[in-house]
Amino acid sequence: MNIKIYRSTNHEIHYLMSYIGGCMEVMSFIYLYKALIGFMTSNMVFGITSLVKFSFDFESVYHILIIIIWLVISAIHQLIEYKYISKTKSPWHVYAISLTLNCFLMIAFIALGNYMFTHELFTNHPTIKVMPLVTIGLIFMYIQNFIIKSGGTKLPTSTSVVTSVYILMITTLCQSFLKNKNKERTRLRFESLHYFLVILHFFIGAFITAILNKYIHFYALIIPSVVLIAFCIKIWSLHMSKAA
Questions:
Q1: pTM of the prediction?
Q2: What are the transmembrane regions (predicted)?
Q3: Cβ atoms within 10 Å of 243's Cβ, excluding its own
Q4: What is the pLDDT of residues 120-140, one digit of tens each?
Q5: What is the extent of the structural domain holding 28?
Q6: C-alpha distances in angstroms, 219 versus 97, 107, 109, 222, 223?
């Protein structure tokens, strides 16, 4: 990964997590009844529109339940971080552990999703049977968002709020034309390019996975899982070299 756009391992974290996030989001949209498992705003909108029908079946509370699970995951993460963050042995330790967890979660997501697909467990409407797969996806995307937000470049980066990334990209680009100092213009243009690359990697991941899904369904996630495992090994090696 010595391509020029990957100026550092921290930039790699942002871009590769964005790519993998795009892969997972498009699969959740296709199979999990339009539940974007990394975007709670969309789930809130879907949940509200379902609740106002006053049917009060599982479908009406499905998206609200996703938000509740996300909040529980967030609370558990805060407790874990409070208890164990002081025990990390290098700046890469948290990333290494988080990426390792996501490797196992993505493999579990592929395996369970493929099992449900081959056994025709995906019905026309969401049922309780889909919740184990949803929960695995939610935990994965929570960790993914945590990694990309704390990627180390000190730039506010997130794929859970893509709208803000678009705004930051255009804002920094426009500001670069208003600055008099060449150093400031260059810094702002690099920052705008960073946000563009985050969006581009997300788009590439979603686009390629959506195409592969037509032919190999959940196995479309094999490519991002291989990328994730390879990057996880790299981060572990960085951690061990720093901790030694």
A1: 0.91
A2: 12-30, 61-80, 92-118, 130-148, 160-178, 190-212, 218-236
A3: 13
A4: 999 999 999 999 999 999 999
A5: 9-243
A6: 24, 10, 10, 5, 8
